[in-house]
Amino acid sequence: MASRCELLLICVLSLFSALAHSKTLKRDVKALNEIKASLGWRVVYSWVGDDPCGDGDLPPWSGVTCSTQGDYRVVTELEVYAVSIVGPFPIAVTNLLDLTRLDLHNNKLTGPIPPQIGRLKRLKVLNLRWNKLQDVIPPEIGELKRLTHLYLSFNSFKGEIPKELAALPELRYLYLQENRLIGRIPAELGTLQNLRHLDVGNNHLVGTIRELIRFDGSFPALRNLYLNNNYLSGGIPAQLSNLTNLEIVYLSYNKFIGNIPFAIAHIPKLTYLYLDHNQFTGRIPDAFYKHPFLKEMYIEGNMFKSGVNPIGTHKVLEVSDADFAV
């Protein structure tokens, strides 16, 4: 009788054998070869052969991950980043209907994201940050119901943040910073039950925090809220303390006014609070200085009464990609 180890080895070998002898779906072969024809030499030189999933002695193309579905292999991940891809978003990507991860970050892609992006129903991670993409964020992204991570930061997107993003029930991380977005942040985003990180900093957004959290039970899982470097106004409502999972609140460089509510000091895990360069007044309640987790509170550039002190040493807050690894 074969041992468990022998049975496991047989299963693994069978899996590799099936992967090796399965044919790659023609749809995916055609799409990847169209993409190959449109990319620069830095990518193409390592994409050898016609089959992106590998053929015979040829390995799969760099950045392409495939899996077996029935009698065929399909492309499930495409990661081609930091290779200076120049030109429009490769529309053939939207024919890779089994993609779960699309990562084209840190290239030189231009123009809009095509509305056909909504065809990628299995997509979980969409990373297009650090490009030169333009136009509006397509509302069709709201059709990607399995999406957990959306990175569109450091581009030139304009227009308003589409309310359709609130239709992504699995979304955990939403990065929209460093664009040219205008209008109000949709309060509907507060209905996202799994959203942990929201960054809309460095845009041209207006409105108030009160409007943003106006729905009961808004942002139940939110840990990090980045609203910095916009044109937001009004005061900090005491209701912000209802977001009990908040750890980072980054409000710097806006037009906020008024006193800092005592209730905010009762957010149990609040660790970083950035209030600097607004128009806040009055005193900061003593409870902030007794908070067990609050490491840094920046207050300069406001109109607080004398004697109000910061907490911690002022430095640029940098959150590494590793902190939000998938």
Automatic annotation (TrEMBL):
GO CC, one annotated term: membrane
The protein's matches in SMART domains, at most eight in alphabetical order, are given as: LRR_TYP
Note the topology in the membrane: Single-pass type I membrane protein
Q: Does the keyword Repeat apply?
A: yes
Please give the PANTHER family that the UniProt record associates with this protein: OS06G0587000 PROTEIN (PTHR48059:SF30), POLYGALACTURONASE INHIBITOR 1 (PTHR48059)
* Protein family: Belongs to the polygalacturonase-inhibiting protein family.
Give the protein's recorded name. Answer: Leucine-rich repeat family protein
